[in-house]
# Entry
Amino acid sequence: MKVLQVNANYGFGSTGLIVKDIGEMLTNTGNEALFAYQRTKIPLQNGYQIGNIFDWKLHAVLCRVFGAQCFYSSFYTRKFIRELDKIKPDVVHLHNLHSNFINIDLLLSYLAKNDIATVITMHDCWYFTGKCFHYIDCGCIKFTSGCGNCPKRKMPPQSLLFDRSKGLLERKKKKLLSIPRLTLVGCSQWICKEAQKGILKNCNIQCIYNGVDTEIFCPSKSDFREKYQCESDFLVMGMANKWLLGSNIEIINRIICIPGIKLIIVGCTENQMKYLSQFKDRVIALGFIRERHELASIYSVADVFVNLTHADTLPTVNMESICCGTPVITYDSCGSPELVDDESGFVVKENDQNSIIDRIIESREKKFPRCREVGITRFEKNECYKEYIEIYDWFKRRRE
# Structure
């Protein structure tokens, strides 16, 4: 069975690693894995790069002016479609396409016309909105009635002149629903329920969590505490892209004031590190960590991981921390709370700062001995991605 996955990248970034892992599982089960992408850092014999940097930049400019991301790059999409004619895949699996490299109109039309079994993983909300990846942060529910007058028009992907969200949503609906054999996968229960409120309400949708490599993300030892002179501190870990949002500054200041606490904030930019330098005795500010073993060692040394996210389909960081044996405290926002149970942390009401403080203090006494076991049971990547193989096999049996 030939399965071709299409994603903005291969082998790096969250979705790029997921595509790679699914491909390895396909190969290990005797199937043929093929890939199409915008960018990769790994040369592939079974890979196809769509477009080039000139076309990607042109696509980005057209998107910014006319507001229709993923509806340009016609020449290179047609060229890719000719490659599909040669490959004749049994299943095409689409991931994140909103990266200025492909024309979804042409691609979906081809899949429908040729009755190719299609799987779409919704890593965010883009497939069922007229434009945005997430709408929770602005409280918009227009996707349920047709979009238009988009409150995020000036936000990435930014549109300077036109609001085309209503028309683009209608085009997505027409093209997606024209595919005879279509299965949609949400990477959280939350996004599955959200998708059913809009244009995909009559589609077959199931949930498959993005898996974690539990051989990398596991309890590990390091000299971190000695290096940063925090041997006796209670270490609270968080990610800069969520923690340092303006809406979270107050809670950070409150956490810093808890006696015996020291923060580890990962993924800081130079400006963020400069800002945090005023708290150097209470905060360990780290830059971006691309080496996953190193990141796992930091999860392992932390006493608790606190996720202050307000809009996340499925925070991989929650799963990684739990698999490293470190409990998680998170807001009950989007897909984040469904990853945490009583044996792996705490869920608190969004923006309830007092509860965040209380749970941090409580976690200094409460132990979570089964945290790692919970992570392996729920998030081990091979177990998660077996479910994709089952979907592909179901399409094959149905065709026969």
